[in-house]
Amino acid sequence: MVARDIQQFAEIRTKARAYFCFLFSKNLPNRLPDISTESVTNRLRKIMGDQPNAEGVYLLDEKGVQITPTYLPNGTRTEDAGAIRSTRAYYYRAMKEKRCTITDPYPSLISQEICITASQPIFDEAGNVKYVACLDMPIESVVKLTHPTAGASFVGRFTKFAYSMFSLALLMVAILLFVKGVGSFLAYGIHVDAIEIKTIFKATILLTLSLAIFDLVKTIFEEEVMGVHRHAHAGANRTMIKFLGSIIIALSIEALMLVFKFALTDPDKLEHAVYLIGGVSLLTITLAIYIKFTKEVMGDDD
Question: DSSP string of 102-146?
């Protein structure tokens, strides 16, 4: 669970930072002539009250010294006041970048669970950093805030159930194709010399389609049921390439089988095999164009 949360956090880190930036900018006073520790602390505690999953909030001065206790949802940690946090990433990143930042996941000193810290520099009217406001949040809660899974609602649960059923049905189809493909030549037993080339081709087509459907089931189950979200372009690219690649292989084998069949039995029908080969070639070219443009889009996004 922790490993998956860290992976998902890496994927939605930009959204998470944008969320906390909005939260801080909306609630904390900034660039005002009379900014006091009390006024900032009160607004910071209000943010924590609006975020029930927050672990704690606290305030640092411009030198990285914690000047308030750590305020928890159900109390305070007074022993934290006076602690030097100048070596912590949430302090020096905020001071260096002069903007809202979030840390990498790390073990919390409060709960010992994996968390992140969002920090926001507070400026005085002259534009100098006076405070650094900090908010600790469990990584699991951050992922749910910025990339919520639909499982919390009735529609979400129904959607997951529907995808699970479709995945199960497709998996059964893949298994049936696999069994049929293997059984088509196992039926000959030890009489290998009795197996026709046509039978081998058909078994190969069935096994290839089985593999393609299994890959599709794997992708649907991981992303829609388990919630393992990949980069949008990368996921679509990988799924499309694997599925269409398997289909192209199956059609190519079918075209080759028709060439042999018509060459031996009915040469006048060879043109139908040529049409199928042309269709496979067109599909291959189309897939190559898709891969090229998808990579260009991914490169632009990066």
Answer: EPPPEE-TTTSSEEEEEEEEEEBTTS-EEEEEEEEEEHHHHHHHH
Which is nearest to 147 in space by CA: 287, 38, 22, 7?
A: 7
Lowest model confidence (mean pLDDT) among 25-39, 235-249, 269-283: 235-249
- What is the count of structural domains for the chain? 2
Domain of residue 193 covers: 150-301
Question: Do 173 and 223 have their domain in common?
Answer: yes
Going by the DSSP 8-state scheme, the letter that residue 53 receives in this structure is: T
| Domain end residue (candidates: 146, 162, 181) | 146
* Residue with token string 């059984």: 183
Task: Give pLDDT tens digits for 138-159.
Answer: 998 888 876 655 445 567 678 8
> What's the CA gap between 236 and 299, in Å, rounded?
15
Q: What CATH number is given to the structural domain containing 14?
A: 3.30.450.20
User: Mean pLDDT in the chain?
Assistant: 82
